[in-house]
Structures are given as structure tokens and as C-alpha cells.
Amino acid sequence: MIPLRDDNPTEITPVVTVALIVSCSMVFLYEISLSIPRSEAFVYMFGAIPAVVLGHAQLPPELVILPAYGTLFSSMFLHGGWMHLIGNMLYLWIFGNNIEDVMGHAKFVLFYLICGVLAAFSHALVDPESTIPMVGASGAISGILGGYLL
What we know:
By secondary structure, this protein is mainly alpha-helical. It has helices spanning about 15-35, 35-45, 50-55, 70-75, 80-105, 105-125, 140-150.
């Protein structure tokens, strides 16, 4: 069962939630506008690759845009397909506004980013030799859901 809304009213305008949804959507639209080889390179440049993040491997120099730890942040704004993006953004829209209302804008964006980075780093620790880029906001969204349940 996929939730379409919640019954908790908010008192603030969820500007950070909307900004995150717009940012992820714009990055995805850019990503799908690229040719297949350029799209793949884009994912390798900005996706979090466990072996690279943990120092077990290196990317070719032409694919290094950010330091490896920077991809723990940038990977949250990439998505692997329409359903991946829509699912994450739907859950962010439904539950993020409530957390933003309780925490305030600044603490919410920090909470979101910290949850996403910790999730990506945790995944890297579980599969440290993986050279497959991790993409998506699922870790950050899971943190939002955890906060919502509390």
C-alpha cells in the first residue's frame, strides 16, 4: 500500500522539502537528457562508489569531479529511473513536511543530508569492494521516515 498523504497538518511552508524535490527532479531531468555514455559517466562522477569512497579503488582522472567523500552528498540527488525518483519524492513530500515543521528549515536540511550520508557510508561498509555507483535519496528518506515514526 502506497501512502498518498498523511493527516498531520503543518504550520510552516515546507521550503526545504520543496527545494529538495525540485533539486532531485532537475538533476534527474538533466541526467536523462544526456546520451547513454554521458549519462553513465555522470553517474560515475557523482554517484557514491563504495570502493572509491573507502579508498580501495580510484576512478580514471577524467571522471573525478569531486573528492570521494563529496559523492556521499551528490549521490542523493541522482536517481536510477522514473519510479525511483517518484517513489522517493512522494515519500519526501508526504513525510518531509512534518519533520521540517517540527525541526525547522535549517535543522531539517542538516538531518536530511546526515541521514543520506550515513546511509551511503553504511552501505559502503557492507560492500567495500563494490564498484557500482550508489544513487538515490532512499537513505535520507529512510531517515525522514524514522523521524516521522518517533
